[in-house]
Amino acid sequence: MTTTDRSRERREEIEAILERKPGVREVRDEADRYTVVGAAGRGTYANWLTPVEEHFVCHRNAIPEIEDDSWSVAFSGGLAGEASVAELAERFPTVAVAHTMECAGNGRGQHEPETGSVQWGFEAAATAVWTGVPLSSVLRAFSEELPEEGWLTAVGGDPDEEGVFARSIPLEKAVDDCILAVGVNGRQIPAEHGYPVRLLVPGWYGVNSVKWLDELRLADSMVTEGSLDRPGRHARWQQEDYRIHPAGEAPEWMETIGTADTWGQLESDEVAHPYTFDQNVMSVIGTPDGEGSIRAGEIDVCGVAWAGDDSVERVEVSFTGGDEWTEAERFGPEYSGAWRLFRCSWNAEPGTHRLVSRATDEHGRTQPATIGSPEEGLDALGSGRYPWNEGGYAANAYLPNALEVRVEPDE
Ligand SMILES: Nc1nc2c(c(=O)[nH]1)N[C@H]1C(S)=C(S)[C@@H](COP(=O)(O)O)O[C@H]1N2
Ligand SMILES: [Mo]
């Protein structure tokens, strides 16, 4: 397929998604390589549950045409066998997990100078309830004996021009809380979200939750070139893309790492170029939404905050662009891997105000105010800035997410 054909196909796919999902809008992708739509407005972040119509979509290849649940998942490496989706659903218990899906490129559009690819602001985040079967039960059933440690590689069924879409996660995470999902928010997973089955990795960046799951492989190491029994490239999406590295530095390929925690990797010397696994602490204000103006008086400022599989310990809101802070109250559902709602009351006086939120996770890590410069490299973290990185990954600075609110006198 030529680049123009691929480009036309992508445009058609995006148009069709926009028709099905009124709550999203297209996001700028410089290279036109991804199918990407994001939440259309801030209102999404004033609710705990994101309707599928407002849930962002992100993938690289065309949606594979899959007819029904006779689609099967193959097990390989330290696993053996094959199971159709219908069989999986019948054989294993049905469970549900709440998960905040966040693209590792969320906030990429806030890097200055600009990095390539999809220019997300904060709209590549959404929370849904995914239903399916526990991955731990499946792995136990399709292995002779599960080892204590290892890596599970998930391969997507989407045709990739140069190889496969494959991602590896530590076995420890796989058996802890991952599921093979067949449903979302009470209905069958729509095609663009991975029908008929996807891996769902609660609290980790979206890229780990492989859609249109085709194969699960258990091995001692994460995927490297030549480690799958398939033609083409295997390791691009694990070892090259989705790595946090300074401009001009090629990420070092690794077989295994000690800590998967993304922020932990950034802080330690073990991994020079962190992998994007669990999500960094983040928050977004949902209401007021900055559209139009509001009447002066006492109002509730409401939003969501998350920290991957860690919990959110504190949320603060500033009505003065970050000069003074008020502690917000966390409320609503509390699930590991999903965001929490926050609110605080604001006595809005006439004028224009800059509202911003910042969250702190259970390890005491607070969202930095800004993203650093390319020259600072990953050391920016030491001076309290989120590291500008060439792929624009895992950014969680709070000032770029500030919103302006116009308040009219209340007559
Ligand atoms: N097979 C496959 N799975 C994939 C992708 C892909 O390109 N192919 N994109 C990943 C990325 S980058 C993200 S952010 C999430 C987005 O999931 P969603 O479209 O359901 O929101 O899917 C992930 N799973
Ligand atoms: Mo993504």
TrEMBL record:
What keywords appear on the UniProt entry? Metal-binding, Molybdenum, Oxidoreductase
Q: Which Pfam families match?
A: Mo-co_dimer (PF03404), Oxidored_molyb (PF00174)
Q: What is this protein called?
A: Molybdopterin-dependent oxidoreductase
InterPro entries cross-referenced by the UniProt entry: Ig_E-set, MoCF_OxRdtse_dimer, Mopterin_OxRdtase_euk, OxRdtase_Mopterin-bd_dom, OxRdtase_Mopterin-bd_sf
Q: What species is given as this protein's source?
A: Halalkalicoccus tibetensis
GO MF assignments? metal ion binding; oxidoreductase activity
Starting at the broadest rank, the lineage of the source organism is: Archaea, Methanobacteriati, Methanobacteriota, Stenosarchaea group, Halobacteria
Q: Where is the Moybdenum cofactor oxidoreductase dimerisation domain?
A: 276-370
Stretches the record annotates as Disordered: 359-383
SUPFAM superfamilies annotated for this entry? E set domains, Oxidoreductase molybdopterin-binding domain
Q: Which residues form the Oxidoreductase molybdopterin-binding domain?
A: 62-221
Is Oxidoreductase given among the entry's keywords? yes
Q: What does this protein need as cofactor?
A: Mo-molybdopterin
